[in-house]
Amino acid sequence: MTDVNLTTPIAVLVAGFIAAVSIGSLAWYNSKRPPGWESKERPDFVPKVDKDDLIADVSESKGK
Question: Where are the domains of the chain?
């Protein structure tokens, strides 16, 4: 039979899964808290994103 090397595609899938979980976790922590989680603290490694600053940045970029 033919010898097929699947190392690269599997590595790409694993790296993509890790990236998706990381990005999804950051997005979830920056979103509104689900019911019952409103009083929980934000982890130190998650950056604080201010919605007003984000909207202002988008408005400025559209005006150019």
Answer: 7-34+42-63
